[in-house]
Amino acid sequence: MKQTYAFLAALALASGLQAQTTALDFTANDCNGVGHTLFSELEAGNAVIIELVMMGCQPCVTASQSITANVLPNVSDPSRVKFYSIGFTNSITCTQMNDWAYTNGFTHTVFAGMSAQTTHFGGMGMPTIAVVGGGSSHGVYYTEQGHSSSQNPTILAAVEAALAASVGVQEVSTPGVGVSPNPTTDVLTVTGANWTSAQVVDIQGREVMSAQMNAGKLDVSTLPTGAYVLRLSDATGTTGMARFEKR
User: Fold this and answer.
1) Which of 33-42, 83-92, 194-203, 208-217 has the lowest mean pLDDT?
2) CB burial of residue 3 (10 Å; 0-12, 13-18, 19+)
3) CATH class of the domain whose range is 178-246
4) Whose CA, among 73, 84, 85, 215, lies 20 to 30 Å from 99?
5) How far apart are CA 35 and CA 239, in angstroms?
């Protein structure tokens, strides 16, 4: 059963997300005293999952647990993915954030409150999840208020797209999965398993195509020109991922 995690603050600024396409930079020490500049992280080729949280918000805790357990272990290059939980308003202190992390057994990076990030990503619906990356483009690949475990595959695809966009579409894929020709104009041949179904996600993390595989072939001729992430599965539950470019 789908469980929707949505917690709206009493002083909500908006009922929906603003359509941001670029991240908002910040330079700050995390709550362990380590300095970070967001854009420097992205320009180094990393993707960052940002979770805006409020104290006393159980859905925020559940979202962190779900992302930690189900997204981070499945990314293709964990060394290039950062997970930040950030207090949603300037009044939240590092003492509070460290207590929050310790109480819930979290080891990822936490920051004191940053109201500017909350405003940038659309208001006070907690938790708010964003995925940013794409190198010097500082792109936003996913934003959503609230969290459901059913959204984890979309978050994972957004992370992979953010990584791919930062280093080039050819350079990151699940080991053993091959796509050819790449770039392609029409039909992809996909190897690595007896794949039965495929989803195609654009670099903003949006699913743009879902289809059954036909003897390892996938017709992508109707897709617009651009870079994409291909998510694959077979009858045994094996999954894979690859990048390709459509011309």
Assistant:
1) 194-203
2) exposed
3) mainly beta
4) 73
5) 37
Q: Give residues with Cβ within 8 angstroms of 214, minimum separation 6.
A: none
Query: What ranges do the domains of the chain cover?
Result: 4-167, 178-246
Contact 133, 41 (CB under 8 A): no
| Contact status, residue 142 vs residue 62, Cβ threshold 8 Å | no
Q: How many CB atoms lie within 10 A of CB 247?
A: 9
d(CA 39, CA 62): 28
Mean pLDDT to the nearest integer, 218-236: 89
Strands 81-87 and 109-111 come out as parallel
Chain center to CA of 8 = 22
